[in-house]
Amino acid sequence: MPRFSVIVTAQGLAGRLPTALDSVLTQSFTDFELITACDTPDSPAVTVADEYAGKDPRIAHPTGSRDAGMNAATGTYLLFLDATDVLTAGALAAMDARLRETGEVDVLYLAHERVPWWVGEPVAEPSDDGDPTDVRRPVWATAYRRGFLADHQLAFPKGHFGDIGWSGLVTLAAGRSAALNRVCVRRHERRPSSGGGATPDAQRQLLDQVELVLRRAAEQDLAHDTSRALFEHLFAEVLDTAATSCRRAFFRRAGRLHRRHRPAGHRTKGLRNRLLARGAYTTFRALLGAERRTEQARAFATRAARRWRRGRPRGPYRRYLRRPLDENLAVYAAYWGRGYACNPAAIHRKARELAPHIRSVFLVREQDAANMPEDVESVVIGSRRYWEVMARAKYTFNNVNFETAVVKRPGSVHVQTHHGTPLKRMGVDQIEYRAVAAATGSYGRLMERADRWDYSLSSNAHSTEVWSGAYPSAFTHLEYGYPRNDRFYTADPAEVTAIRERLGIPKDRVALLYAPTYRDYPRDVSAQFDLARFCAELGPEFVVLLRAHYFLEGDADLQQAVSSGKLIDVTASRDTEDICLASDALITDYSSIMFDYANLDRPIVTYADDWDVYRDTRGVYFDLLAEPPGHVARTQDELIRVFTTGEWADERSAGLRYRFRERFCRFDDGRAAERVVRRVLLGQPEEELPPVVPLHERLPVPAAARPAVVVGPRTHTPAR
User: Fold this and answer.
1) pLDDT the model gives residue 717
2) Are 417 and 680 in contact (CB under 8 A)?
3) Comparing C-alpha atoms, which of 714, 720, 608, 716 is closest to residue 670?
């Protein structure tokens, strides 16, 4: 029998589940079992749980709720976590030590921290206040003796506010309790709903829980102080709920419960409590209205000051916003206006083909306007025309966010296309990585921008899960693939040949695209990777395409490599898809280009010399080195050997790539842009959109130099 059973429920947050599970599995105290209770049999969380269970025999995962996990548990003490919770290092060891001091208590309350979802330091909440009647103590920061729960046949009440009912029943049944004033659990708070408070059904269920606990308390001979404290804690929750959204039926029933179960001699304190006890609904609403108006006035003044500091355009933009939306105007932008690129450009091209009645305007910075295609209508960001099209466009597409000053008008449609599959942490998931979080700025403002999204584009199920957790808002996922990757399936060999000629790649050379990612920490690149030496030792059959501007600045050895024809600098090229098509293999570290490139079914080699630093500093969603798209090199010598020995294109490389493509290229089949245009601009229903072509039936354009490789269960030489 294990000492602890840790039960983790996912509740739709599969993207956060690995962090929670890892925090348990890495505990120094190992006498535990880990149970994952997933909400539905076909949820993404089940896939995550299956993967973990296959690697560690201490993991079981019955489908269902906390009760299912509790029924499966065999430990002496149970701990219930959500996917947003993590155990701190040494937590289980500290709990075991405390329980040895106190003996077999029924309940052990744990100190914990709440990490705000937006920004800021964690808020610590100690557990040594000695008040076991507080029904609002978090279930996820409490350890329960399994025998105690079984003896009293305790189960979690169904519906909303079930934790209130559970905690109340535990309070009434528990004999001995203790507290551990050491932070054992850290909760990453979810973003609160903007729906205006609890629904009528949720409010009804809250009162059901309150009544359940009060009736059970009436059946026991409780001490007066215990009865009074329990009553006050229950109605503190009722009043908090009433303050956010008070309805007459809820208020009246709450008042009846208050009067019926008020302990003898209890003196009602506070104006809100007294109004509730009297059933004075109209006066209570008037009080809330007055308080709310005061808060709104303060908030308005704060927002006005912020707008003034940000220089929000007031005159022209306000006038344009009063004009009606142009139902046939679509606006596109990519990379903060850096030019015609990425998913927005691919959608723009397809929109001109399938929806010619829609006027398409691309946004661009003034310094990049000269590089726009001549047949693409563009507007310079910040100009008067920019504010006009932003105010009146029915449709907007962007692979980043529009500036905060842009207003999301009712009836307008915004599509967030993103610009890569996430390996590194994104959005609010960056909060715990302080260097990155500091550079990101206000997470509140970030979420204001994410709230403008109507649709979020995904190229795989992994991205869908990540976007749900990283940007907790009410947008709809479009699992259509990335439009920019369509070219990998629609291009032909003649295009590949033409691109290679334009870039100056000799016909008899194998072109290796080297595309490293950005680091959020100092890194002496030239000292850690001698690119000139790499080019020199590869052999005459290879040429390196470099897509990284900082290597060439002032490096004489690299200039010599360029002069000798062993290195071609393609950094200035604006079309990443062209460079990928021209290459025969990819060398990268942690760049999201690997997910796009995998669509080409060409070899990928990962150079991960600083993986540990990157992982711990930037944060990642999965272990790339355990699930790579091909061979992994940790040193420069290993990287050179991979290419000089031919390993880069061997059977193992193909097998790794096939599994990688199965996971991350699920929706990319050459028709992503068409699906977006038909759904968003033409309003066609899902069932009329082109179905996704299965992975084994797709034929990406072949590389110029293509060795025979093994793909999945069959030998395959990529061919058109």
Assistant:
1) 42
2) no
3) 720
Tokens describing residue 628: 């790579």
Cα–Cα distance list, 698 to 62, 93, 614 (Å) = 36, 52, 34
**Integer Cα distance of 630 and 656 in angstroms:** 5
CB atoms within 10 A of CB 40: 12
Query: Can you list the alpha helix ranges (DSSP code H) found in 564-635?
Result: 576-582, 593-597, 611-618
The model's pLDDT over 98-118, given as tens digits with 9 standing for 90+, comes to 999 999 999 999 999 988 765
CA gap 618, 522 in Å, rounded: 12
- 373 residue type, one letter: P
3 state DSSP class of 535: helix
- pLDDT band per the 50, 70, 90 thresholds, residue 553: very low
DSSP 82-101: ETTEEEPTTHHHHHHHHHHH
Contacts of 35 (CB under 8 A, 6+ apart): 5, 6, 7, 8, 59, 60, 61, 62, 69, 72, 73
**Would you say 172 and 106 are in contact if contact means Cβ atoms under 8 Å apart?**
no
Lookup result for tokens 């899902």: 686
Distance CA(52)–CA(174), nearest Å, equals 35
Three-class SS string for 383-449? CHHHHHHHHHEEEEEECCCCCCCCCCCCCCEEEECCCCCCCECCHHHHCCCHHHHHHHCCHHHHHHH
**Cβ-contact 30, 96 below 8 angstroms:** no
What is the Cβ-side half-sphere exposure of residue 541, based on CA atoms within 13 angstroms?
A: 7
Half-sphere exposure at residue 653, Cβ-oriented, CA atoms within 13 angstroms: 24
pLDDT digits 0-9 by tens, 459-514: 999 999 889 888 888 899 999 999 999 999 999 999 999 999 999 999 889 999 99
What's the chain's length in residues?
720
CA dist., res. 273 & res. 682, Å (int)? 55
* 593/581 Cα distance (integer angstroms): 13
Q: How far apart are CA 115 and CA 716, in angstroms?
A: 50
- The larger pLDDT score, comparing residue 370 to residue 527, is at 370
Q: Which residue has the tokens 């061979």?
A: 631
Lowest-confidence range among 46-50, 269-273, 605-609? Answer: 46-50
CA 459 to CA 147: how far, in whole Å? 48
SS3 606: strand
Is pLDDT of 125 > 60?
yes
Measured at the alpha carbon of residue 231, what is the angle toward residues 229 and 237, in degrees to the nearest 5?
105
Going by pLDDT thresholds of 50, 70 and 90, the confidence category of residue 551 is very low
Other CB atoms within a 10 A radius of the CB of residue 694 amount to 9
- At residue 90's C-alpha, the angle toward residues 85 and 91, to 5°, is 45
Q: How far apart (Å, rounded) are the C-alpha atoms in residues 445 and 502?
A: 44
Cα 632 from Cα 655, distance rounded (Å): 14
Residue 417: both structure tokens together: 């296309």
Structural contact between residues 529 and 610, judged by C-beta atoms closer than 8 angstroms: no
- Token look-up 């206006």 returns 337
First-to-last alpha carbon distance for the chain, in angstroms, is 59
The C-alpha atoms of residue 657 and residue 629 are separated, in whole angstroms, by: 4
Q: What angle do CA 360, 336, 664 make, to 5 degrees?
A: 85
